[in-house]
Specification:
By secondary structure, the protein is of the alpha/beta class. It has two domains: about 15-210, P-loop containing nucleotide triphosphate hydrolases (Rossmann fold); about 345-585, Nucleotidyltransferase, domain 5 (2-Layer Sandwich). The strands form six sheets. Strands 3, 4, 5, 6, 7, 8, 9, 10, 11, 15 and 16 form an eleven-stranded mixed β-sheet that branches. A hairpin with a 2-residue loop joins strand 6 (about 130-135) and strand 7.
């Protein structure tokens, strides 16, 4: 009897979150297709993530994730463990109040009530939708858009879900992440868990991932050769449907994973064994790190097949918005606009065998762009054909307005012809030495027009402003105000196309590296204003000039003014044939295409 009495006062056995879930978490049919006792072995990659929540030396856990990998269930297990074994206050934050309320009603409360050891401690009568009370604490669910509520609670544990959907600023307050973390500073044993699919490299979750002391990836042995490896999308092999290219249904049925070491075919049936043998591997060795991070993609999910991932990619690869969702939600990686990552070597790959100064025979018109600097000018001339296919004809520097006039009035020979072509329209930068630029363009109208970049984003690529009024005694003059970001987006999207394909952006055989360096002198930067994200192009460094990039924008604007988008396709059969004859190994193609898009 005495032994029995002593046993009743003995503290419960110390468990990790995964051990607790395996012993006490119960899943119902409306929660999961695997109804019954929770089994961490079904999702072995979640074990270390959940157990970090009970490790004394760890303060912050970041999970950079794809969808459908079980992160929400891991969060529920952390809450259930806290209520049952370590009662304290928990702040659970979702992007907005409606999501917090729905999550509380539809997921969290049901999960807690279905777990007997938690249900008996859950004070249902004194709980509300977003305040769940239990013996020794409560769970407060809030939306990230409520700064006052985030700042009003002192808590030792904070779980923040889908943090890339949080607003950057909440009114005049600090960011929701900072406000929430402030609530834990008086607790030496605090725990902060951050979960999210990413958006861009500047997003909350990716920045938290980079800021971690240690970052982990999940490695598994190949069933054929035993080589330890991660699941990476570039090793998913997607066969073509003969004569029809890549098709979603074929991709779903026939895609497989290839070991990068021995090239063995890995099927979905191999995944379970690989996951069970897997382990998280740190990118560096640090003793007792405080802030740790994990990254995992949908290829690891037991509910997702290699074919599912392949099908989604084939359906998404040709549309930037869908591709961004694929990269974020399926690969768990931040979206990096392909334009922002173009290097000078990529520009040089756009060379054709046509020398400088020669117009391709498919060209319909020529346009030019002039960038004005103090004491000198940069200029380009570009040929345009159907589907907005374009080719750099020539580029260079000039010292005077007269030199610019000579270049732009020149006759340029046409490939395989005795004929020549002149520039139909060129745009001149009027941002510097404005009055001289206006006068030069006025004297050469309608072959030359002044342009300047807009100070803000516009709906259309350009707007027209009247400089000199329409009058029967006075020649009218207009200024074209350009949304230069739109033209740069368009240009780099076309740079990503194969050089032989219709709609591609090409350079001549004699183009120099100096030109390529200037074209790639800017990158997309995401800035925040009034709580909204905006992408703009900015110079990478002031020491790297961007003059030819500006010239190309002006030449593209001139083509737009000439309505180049309306050019018909009748004389582009050679381009189409080149594209049709451009054969590439099917697996290399699909992965090369993906890398370009990223």
């Amino acid at each position: 009897m005495a032994g029995h009495a002593l046993k009743s006062f003995r503290p419960p056995k110390r468990l990790s979150v995964s051990e607790w879930a395996d012993n006490y978490r119960v899943l119902t049919k409306d929660e999961s297709s695997f109804a019954g006792t929770w089994k961490t072995q079904r999702v072995p990659y979640l074990k270390a993530i959940m157990d970090a929540f009970t490790k004394e030396t760890i303060e912050s856990i970041t999970l950079l994730k794809a969808t459908q990998i079980g992160a929400t269930e891991a969060g529920i297990n952390m809450v259930g463990y806290t209520i049952d074994r370590d009662p304290s206050r928990i702040l659970y934050i979702l992007p907005d109040a409606d999501l917090a309320k729905d999550f509380s009603n539809d997921r969290l409360q049901k999960a807690l009530l279905h777990c007997p050891t938690v249900a008996e401690k859950f004070d249902v009568n004194n709980s509300k939708n977003q305040v769940l009370r239990f013996e020794g604490g409560f769970v407060k669910l809030e939306g990230a858009q409520s700064p006052g509520k985030l700042a009003s609670w002192s808590v030792p544990k904070v779980i923040m879900d889908e943090i890339d959907k949080y607003p950057q600023w909440t009114g005049r307050e600090a960011s929701p992440l900072k406000l929430a973390k402030e609530r834990t500073k008086n607790w030496p044993d605090r725990k902060i868990a951050l979960f999210s699919t990413p958006t861009t490299e500047q997003g909350n979750i990716y920045q938290a991932y980079l800021a971690a002391d240690v970052r982990y990836k999940f490695y598994m042995p190949c069933p054929a050769c035993g080589k330890w490896q991660t699941f990476d999308f570039e090793n998913v092999k997607i066969p073509k449907n003969k004569g029809k290219g890549f098709e979603p249904l074929v991709a779903r049925k026939e895609a497989y994973y290839q070991c990068p070491a021995c090239h063995a075919k890995i099927n979905d049936t191999d995944k379970k064994e690989m996951l069970n043998k897997g382990k998280w591997v740190a990118d560096k060795q640090i003793e007792n790190p405080r802030n740790i991070a994990f990254h995992i993609n949908s290829l690891y999910s037991p509910w997702v097949t290699f074919g599912d991932v392949a099908e989604e990619f084939v359906r998404s690869k040709d549309e930037p918005s869908k591709l961004m969702n694929f990269v974020n939600s399926w690969l768990g990686e931040p979206w990096k606009p392909k334009a922002a990552s173009v290097a000078a070597t990529t520009i040089m790959h756009q060379k054709t065998n046509i020398p400088q100064g020669l117009v391709p025979k498919w060209a319909k018109l020529l346009t030019g762009g002039v960038d004005c600097q103090k004491g000198y000018f940069y200029w380009v001339i570009r040929a345009w054909g159907a589907n907005m296919t374009s080719q750099l004809i020539a580029n260079g520097q000039a010292m005077t307005w007269g030199d610019i006039n000579t270049v732009m009035d020149q006759n340029w020979p046409i490939e395989d012809s005795q004929e020549t072509m002149q520039v139909n329209l060129y745009c001149v930068d009027s941002g510097y030495n404005t009055e001289e630029a206006y006068e030069y363009c006025y004297q050469r109208y309608p072959y030359c027009v002044p342009v300047k970049g807009a100070s803000h984003a516009m709906i259309k690529p350009f707007n027209i402003t009247q400089l000199r009024p329409r009058d029967k005694w006075v020649q009218p003059q207009v200024l074209y105000v350009l949304d230069t970001d739109q033209y740069k987006n368009m240009m780099f999207a076309r740079i990503a196309k194969d050089v032989n394909s219709a709609g591609s952006w090409r350079i001549n055989a004699d183009t120099t590296r100096e030109y390529a360096d200037m074209i790639t002198s800017e990158q997309k930067i995401i800035t925040e204003k009034d709580g909204r994200s905006t992408e703009t192009w900015q110079q990478i460094t002031s020491s790297k000039p961007n003059h030819y990039l500006d010239c190309e924008v002006y030449a593209a604007a001139a083509a737009d003014i000439m309505n180049v988008r309306a050019l018909v396709d009748e004389d582009t059969q050679e381009i189409k044939q080149e594209e049709a004859n451009h054969k590439v190994d099917e697996h290399k193609f699909i992965n090369k295409d993906f890398k370009l898009e990223r």
